[in-house]
Amino acid sequence: MTSPEHRKAQIVRLLKGLETGDPDAVAVVDEAKYIQHNPQTHEGSEGLAQLFARLAKTNPRVNIVRIFADGDFVFGHTEYDFSTRRIGFEVFRFEGDRAVEHWDNIQPRKGPNPAGRSMVDGPTEPTDLDKTEANRARARELVQSVLIERRFDALDGYLDPNGLVQHDPELEDGNEAWRAALEATEAGRPLLEYQTLHRVLAEGSFVLTVSEGARATKHSAIYDLFRLADGKVVEHWNTIEAVAPKSEWNNDNGKF
After folding, report:
1. CB 177 within 8 A of CB 171
2. Can you tell me the distance from the alpha carbon of 68 to that of 203, in angstroms, rounded to the nearest whole number?
3. pLDDT value, residue 1
4. What are the chain's domains?
5. What is the CA radius of gyration of the chain?
6. Which stretches in the chain have pLDDT values below 50?
7. Which of 28, 34, 36 has its CA nearest to residue 10?
8. What is the DSSP letter of 134?
9. β-pairing, 165-166 with 98-108?
10. Which of 141, 192, 196, 208 could covalently link to 212 via disulfide, CB atoms 3.0 to 4.6 Å apart?
11. CA of 20: how far to CAs of 23, 75, 249, in Å?
């Protein structure tokens, strides 16, 4: 079986190919099996090659800030400069040494936030590898029981009592600032609404959750990256991206 570190290296090369235009970077993709969930990208490795060629003309910059592996999945936290600066999460599913499926969630870079933090700074290497499954379960429970079911009275039980380190570009540090943002409503509807948890990926102290919901009533994908210590969430990063109408999709696989 291909090692997690080799898979990570393959994905780093693939993503850096956006910057270099390297056509060989897409060799990790199994064209015959590849399922593309970015609605704006065409299916298969040919679609990726076209994307790389187009973006290379804009003198792009790609920085892979964090890269993790979880079973057959590799997931990364990235920053891009494609004429405009953006922050993203990239998720790839492998079969053997080839990538066969891809999801992402990208939003414009904002900030620094009121705490002076960027959307990507902070620790990058996972610790507590023996606690991967416990941390996965804890993050899953947080999203399902608190964020989806909106049981915000239970939120503090999942967070570091010393206060959450926050990278959301609009929020202060601290548990109360995040809770207030999650509780906020407009015309009787939540400003940020979690509806369905699709995926929970983890390596050690880091857990990525992939949720579907709405922001300001717009159908959205919500990716949250949590860093946990001693069973508590101590740090949080996220991206929120509106899901394009189906009439604008370049493939039929769906965002999730």
Report:
1. yes
2. 6
3. 58
4. 4-109 (3.10.450.50), 129-242 (3.10.450.50)
5. 18
6. none
7. 28
8. H
9. unpaired
10. 196
11. 9, 21, 26
